[in-house]
Amino acid sequence: MYSVKEIYYTLQGEGANTGRPAVFCRFSGCNLWTGREEDRHKAICQFCDTDFVGVDGPGGGRFVTAEELAVAVADRWPDSERGTPLVVCTGGEPLLQVDEKLVDAFHARGLEVAVETNGTQEPVPGLDWICVSPKAGAKLVLRQGDELKLVFPQPDLLPEEVENLDFTHFFLQPMDGPHRDVNTQRAVEYCLEHPRWRLSLQTHKFIGID
Predict the structure, then answer these.
(1) Where are the domains of the chain?
(2) Annotation says 204 is catalytic
(3) Is residue 191 among the annotated active site residues?
(4) pLDDT digits (tens, 9 = 90+) for 22-70
(5) Which of 179, 164, 173, 169 is nearest to 199 (CA)?
(6) Is 30 part of the annotated catalytic residue set?
(7) Reduced to 3 states, what is the DSSP secondary structure of residue 93?
(8) Is residue 48 flagged as an active site residue?
(9) Which of 34, 51, 128, 204 is catalytic?
(10) Is the N end or the C end of the chain the one with fewer CB atoms within 10 Å?
């Protein structure tokens, strides 16, 4: 059974695929935080800004089979549009639930399959795009993929600690919150000084979409 917080169609707001239409499938649960505010102080990742608790979001629920979930995701893609449909499996931590059967079911419906993961879990075969966002204090198991997106700054996880991993794209994403403007300026300066890194902004927040 797959526990899903929400399924919705939108534009990818960050990273290498910014601006690309996609169906987001947000899985419930994470191994770095319960998602409950009363537990934030003891979480490994204390800056997460995503609601991944429960299955009560739009399109969310418990899906008994991979087929059932793949149908629910594919149904969100506009029938009238061509192009290659993309599903972004996110969370929470999607690799706690995404398995080979689900990837195969997505592919059977013509979907490209991307995951956004904290990198603490091994990937399943067949993924088309892997975005890893490592977190300080969490063991990084997944050390290769398409995109490494580091929330910045994390005092206990510096960019130079991960810049030699096997990824095609390296992004710094300013940490949101009360110090976002300062963090953005620091990220800009770092990217200018270290041109291997590119700046990733959460454009969906600026334009007011999910």
Answers:
(1) 2-147
(2) yes
(3) no
(4) 999 999 999 999 999 999 999 999 999 899 999 999 999 999 999 999 9
(5) 173
(6) yes
(7) coil
(8) yes
(9) 204
(10) N
